[in-house]
Design brief:
The structure is a single chain. The protein folds into 2 domains: 16-64; 74-235, no CATH class. The model is unreliable at 1-18 (pLDDT under 50). It is an all-alpha fold and 238 residues long. It has helices spanning 2-18, 24-56, 61-64, 67-71, 79-101, 109-131, 133-141, 146-163, 165-168, 173-189, 201-235. Helix 5 runs parallel beside helix 11, helix 6 (109-131) crosses helix 7 (133-141) and helix 10 (173-189) runs antiparallel to helix 11. Helix content is 79%, strand content 0%.
Amino acid sequence: MASIFSVRTVYFSKVKTTHCQLSLREQLRNITPVIVIIFAATLVVLSVIIMIGMKYNVQLNHFTKDPVQIMNAPFYLGLFSNIGILFWCGSAVICFFSKSFMPPKTENRIMRMFLLFSGLITMLLMLDDLFLFHEVMFPEYFGIPQKGVFVIYSNILLLYALLFREIIFKTDYLILGLAFFLIGGSTFVKQIPMPIPEDTFLEDAVKLFGIICWFTYFLRTGFRELKKVFNEKNNSPY
């Protein structure tokens, strides 16, 4: 990992100082393995989707088209959910990006682990919102009730908070605590009577506030850690 970081640093320094332009042959040599891997992985995913569609008699466009188009629904359908997923995704990217730019020094080990596990947990929560894990997938396809899924998620988050409590208390933990409170509390908001029967607007609004707080926390944390890295690099004599 140290060699990867040093190579990345040297590469960016060369680009900054020389502004060199890669020739077509150099670009092809550099990107060909990446393109092959990307296309191979995509073909595997498409092949699996085709086999599932044929086996369970599911139209292939149900896997590929946007749900709004298939349902002929208005474009704003699921607006809050889509915005929340974007913020989940942004939070995960920040965690992984910040972790990748931190040099693997001993003093950075716990913070790098914190960012890695934060990114993984954020991805889990994002996928839960995207594919309705606790609402549909686990209860209907795996026989795990919603309460059971909530217990699993709660234990994961509790273990996460206990393992990284020292790191968390050195950051803007009030924002993270507010995110936990709003996201967790949104499940109880549904008990509040609303003017429209079965309306979940308030519940989803509270959850969206929580997701944005989650994003804000990791944006500030990631920015601070990257700032430390670049300050160390600028102050280094090498």
